[in-house]
Description:
This protein is an alpha+beta fold. Helix content is 16%, strand content 33%. Strands 1-2-3-4-7-8-9-12-11-10 form a 10-stranded antiparallel sheet, with helices on one face. The chain has a two-stranded antiparallel sheet with strand order 5-6.
Amino acid sequence: MRLRHLFPIVLILLAVSAFAQKVEKLPALDDASVPAAVKGVLDPAGSRVLLADGTPLAEVWLRKSTPKNAAAASDVLYPQLALSQMVGVVRFPNGAKDFRGHAVKPGLYTMRYLVQPNDGDHMGTSPNPDFLLTVPVADDPDPNAKMDFKQLSSASARSSGTRHPAVFEMMGPEPGDLPRAYTNADSYLIFSANLKGDDGKSFPIAVVLKGQAPQ
């Protein structure tokens, strides 16, 4: 093979490696600030998502199982999830920015599922209507609590310290061994893992942990 034919291949490999992510397995979440009831619903194995340079981005513990959504909608990515359902807990060791660019301080947060309203204030602001909203874990002691849109948005706003909730866009999962982290064509860093329903069946979810919506 001639050298000039190697150059495009080398450039592609370099581009792929620059965006390579790594996921490490973590033991059960053991932190005194996490309410006992929340710890009790979490899977004992967590995942640490590392950036390409080895910097930890996030640590995620998903629920052991999620109750079935009796009122599933047909126009969402994840009809298995009920509105405001707690999906798991995330720790941002170095803080984070949500999908709208709001800063989230370092700490532990619950993640709850919400569907963006189909109204004039929210149309076209994200590729999908499915989001995970973060709530400071100390403020969210009941994993089975139900909230309406206003209640959850208000609780999540304490994550960002603004009037706006901290929202992390969900995407359709891509094929691959799970759990995994990858960067998609829009330069969003996505974490994907299997979530189990209370019927014992698993389904993959994917959430943007780093990346903002176009302004």
